[in-house]
Structure to design on (121 residues):
């Protein structure tokens, strides 16, 4: 759920949406760039709220940090489900390399705390 212009909207990222985001912005989209976050949010809103295009989101200009956090949470849910980012305590970064390069970079960018937790830092 995301709050825009006094209304709540369902934000959902399908596999197609995730693929589209990666094709447009690579594996490390800048969620604090208003143009980028508006497009990414519009992609996640498109199925249920097609009227919420990126241009409309830009016009409404919701507070950037809470908005970006809500989008980040929805993306994390699309990857990990209701359990959230797994806690890999006890696993070394070296063992975690099998997660894949682009996947690892995306998660690192998406949630810096994930790397600190998995590396014991």
């Amino acid at each position: 759920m995301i709050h825009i212009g006094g209304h709540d909207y369902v934000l959902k990222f399908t596999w197609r949406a995730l693929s589209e985001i990666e094709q447009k912005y690579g594996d490390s989209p800048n969620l604090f760039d208003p143009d980028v976050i508006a497009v990414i949010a519009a992609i996640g809103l498109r199925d249920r709220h097609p009227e919420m295009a990126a241009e409309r989101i830009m016009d409404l200009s919701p507070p950037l940090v809470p908005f970006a956090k809500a989008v980040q949470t929805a993306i994390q849910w699309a990857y990990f489900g209701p359990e959230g980012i797994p806690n890999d305590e006890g696993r070394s970064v070296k063992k975690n390399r099998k997660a894949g390069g682009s996947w690892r970079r995306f998660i690192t960018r998406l949630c810096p705390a994930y790397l600190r937790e998995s590396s014991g830092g």
About this structure: The chain has two domains: 2-84, 88-121.
